[in-house]
Structure formats: structure tokens, C-alpha cells
Amino acid sequence: MSLKVEDLASEILLNDQHDNMRSTSKFEAKSLVLIFYPKNNIPICTSQLCAFRHNYKLFSSYNSEIWGINNVSIYSHNSISRNLQLPFPILSDNGNKIGNLYGIKNIFGLNTSCITFVINEKKINSIHKNLIDSNSHVLKPLEILENSRN
Fold first, then answer.
1. SS3 for 4?
2. Which of 21, 42, 122, 134 could form a disulfide with 48, with the two C-beta atoms 3.0–4.6 Å apart?
3. Which one-letter DSSP state was computed for residue 19?
4. pLDDT at 110 over 80
């Protein structure tokens, strides 16, 4: 099953890199940008996370929050978050249960896609897929947030 724009977003309840439980049930008025990415510490994923880090204040100005998600361990997420100085949580989706709800393919225990979702008012507002260009993963959600503000 894959989600489409205007579908209700599937509930997320996962632990972050500090073992704190994160839940989408707290996002009624805020926007949430979900970054599904394959693995920590590979160049394209690191570039993608850093692109969001560099634009974090801009995302915050749109009253949005960013969450990274993949099925790697909390320990690995803690390490990359600390090393890259990420200001947003990285959630561990062991077993790819949430990834499956969002249509993220999993082969040999790894997510196979870089997909960014923008969620407003519990609905999917945008889905952006791109494995190569980490900057487009930032620009497209920012464009969507700007348009939803007007």
C-alpha cells in the first residue's frame, strides 16, 4: 500500500535517537516533514540530512517539524545525530512497520528509497521521491510549506 497526496497520514509512534517516544498524534496545527532514507553514514543520506540541518530554522519559521526515519538502531541514530549535529529527531523503525504504511520498500533490511512527506492537518500534502538530489528534498517541502501559508 502506498499513500497518496490528500490521504490521511498513518500514525507514527517510534523512539528517537535519545530513546524518547515520538508520536504524530501531537501534530494537529503544525506541519511535519518526514524524511525516509535508507541508511546512516552513506554519502547521499548524510548529504540529505545535512541539507535539512542547514535549513532547519527556515522550516521552523513555517511552524513545521522535521523527523528522519529509517530502520537502523537507536544507537546508530544517536551517533549520526551527534556527529552531524542534527537539530531534529531521527526515529528508529525496526521491522519497517511505519515504512510499510508509507509505502517505503525494504530489501535485505534496508529502506530502498529517499522519500520526503509533508503532512499538514494529519493529511499527506506532498510526497517527493529523489535518490540523487538532496537539495530537492529540502526545496520541495519548503515550497509546499510556503504555499500552504498563503
1. coil
2. 134
3. S
4. no
| Alpha helices in 31-70, H assignment, sequence order | 43-54, 56-61
Host H or E run for residue 142: helix 134-149
Sign of the alpha-carbon torsion through 27, 33, 36, 37: negative
Q: Which three cell numbers stand for residue 83?
A: 556527529
Residue 6 has what pLDDT?
82
| Rounded CA separation 71/95 (Å) | 7
Q: What is the mean pLDDT of residues 95-108?
A: 80
Residue-wise DSSP of 96-132: GHHHHHTT--EETTEE---EEEEEETTEEEEEEE-SS
What does each C-alpha distance from 87 to 29, 100, 115, 144 come to in angstroms? 21, 26, 20, 21
Could you tell me the pTM of the whole model? 0.90
Contact 115, 127 (CB under 8 A): yes
Walk me through the domains of the chain, giving residue ranges and CATH numbers: 13-149 (3.40.30.10)
Tell me which amino acid residue 99 is: G
29-49 per-position pLDDT tens digit: 589 999 998 888 888 788 889
Q: Which residues are catalytic?
A: 45
